[in-house]
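User: Could you go from structure to sequence for me? I need the amino acid at each position, not a summary. Structure tokens:
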């Protein structure tokens, strides 16, 4: 009889642990979604747009940051709706270092770009999303900072 009761107890403990870890994973998923909605990143440095609610927001993410010599920085840009935009890398003096995406109409979705970090000096750079109004004037919609180390 004691063996039967210990088997039941072990099953109860196992189910309790599964429930605990399931709830823990769910709470972590909710916190990751909240961080990503506020511009945060997951452990890979790139977040999943599927976890974000639909809004008129544009998300720019860079991985790795800081980037080292010879590494290729992966830059993702996510938009919910088609828009006319350009994506630029600028230095701290606001000088355009590279235009990743020239001005054009972009469909909604994820747009990925690679940037060779050995083309620039060590320093802090910004990836700048520029959108255009119907009259053609520029709006700086978002800046995302990243660092290059040599």
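Assistant: Here is the amino acid at each position, in order:
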């Amino acid at each position: 009889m004691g063996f039967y009761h210990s088997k039941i107890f072990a099953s109860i403990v196992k189910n309790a642990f599964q429930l605990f870890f399931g709830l823990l994973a769910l709470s972590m998923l909710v916190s990751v979604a909240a961080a990503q909605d506020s511009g945060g990143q997951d452990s890979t440095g790139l977040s999943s747009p599927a976890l974000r609610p639909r809004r008129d927001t544009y998300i720019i993410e860079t991985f790795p940051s800081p980037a080292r010599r010879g590494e290729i920085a992966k830059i993702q840009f996510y938009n919910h709706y088609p828009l006319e935009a350009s994506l630029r890398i600028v230095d701290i003096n606001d000088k355009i270092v590279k235009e990743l995406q020239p001005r054009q109409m972009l469909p909604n979705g994820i747009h990925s770009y690679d940037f060779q970090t050995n083309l620039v000096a060590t320093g802090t750079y910004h990836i700048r999303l520029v959108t255009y109004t119907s009259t053609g004037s520029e709006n700086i919609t978002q800046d995302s900072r990243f660092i290059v180390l040599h």
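One structural detail worth keeping in mind: The first helix runs from residue 2 to 37.
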